[in-house]
Amino acid sequence: MGIKKYRMLVLLFSVLLSLLIVETPTAAAQLSQNYYAGICPNVESVVRGVVSQRLQQSFAAGAGTLRLFFHDCFVRGCDASVLIANPNGDDEGHSGADLSLSADAIDLINKAKAAVDGDPQCTNRVSCADILAMAARDVVSLVGGPFYPVELGRLDGKVSTRAIVKYSLPGPTFNLDQLNSLFAANGLTQTDMIALSGAHTIGVSHCDKFIRRLYQFRGPQEFTPRMNLQFLRQMRQVCPLKYSPSTVAMLDASTPFKFDNAFYQNLQQLEGLLASDQILFADRRSRGTVNWFASNQTAFFDAFVSAMTKLGRVGVKTGDDGELRRVCTTVN
Predict the structure, then answer these.
(1) What is the pTM of this model?
(2) CA dist 74 to 1, 145, 168, 169, 322, Å?
């Protein structure tokens, strides 16, 4: 498929997606920061305890959980459908974009669900979608980022299929127009998009997501932002032409284990690993926000919290559209 046709399909799908997941007043009204106060009052401390313990065992579970939340909300809304494993393999986890989702992160959510249900007052009364939202927040705060109140009250989705994933998530070679179009379809602004991209201050990426940048492989009309020459040489050592599919590189090589604003400072130095990250600085329309976040970590944190709150409202399930899953990986 030609790049022009592909971009047209992405734009068309974004428009259709916006019609499918527009937040309804009922869904918005359902969410509340103290939703579980009279249902399962200790739920947040229980989830945080599991997240803290799991991070000590596997730091990858942290970035993986944050990515899991984003992938969940962008595909069918924040309904934990990303966790469903269908017997026939037709689920989100078996799509190309989700094949690399962290098994440690999925294990973290399953363990958090088991811990919550272990409290007789809470058994089968807390959704997997809410547990995922809380865990994503806890990951951020436990590795140096802001702590913020999470809106709760989501139900879990009943459907998970592969087909929709391909056109629902941003690709590693997306330009600014493509990014803005997809995020706008989910009710998010360009500033929200740039702030959420800052989650790449932790975590890794596999070579196949950026190998084309390293060796200047480009298709017609494909733009590759410039890369710092020394950084390029380092990345070529990590990912040679004959790389192992399991090889990964840090998305933020300067402070890979801390949630901070170094990601944006890396972009200023032309050390963004993914083309879709570096484009935020390369394109003049978004460069000012990158510079702002790079110089002011508080501004980044505030924008990130705002964007995560808005992201958590996407596609919230209510009534018969959702359920409280007894097991996060299977519908009831």
Answers:
(1) 0.89
(2) 24, 22, 6, 7, 17
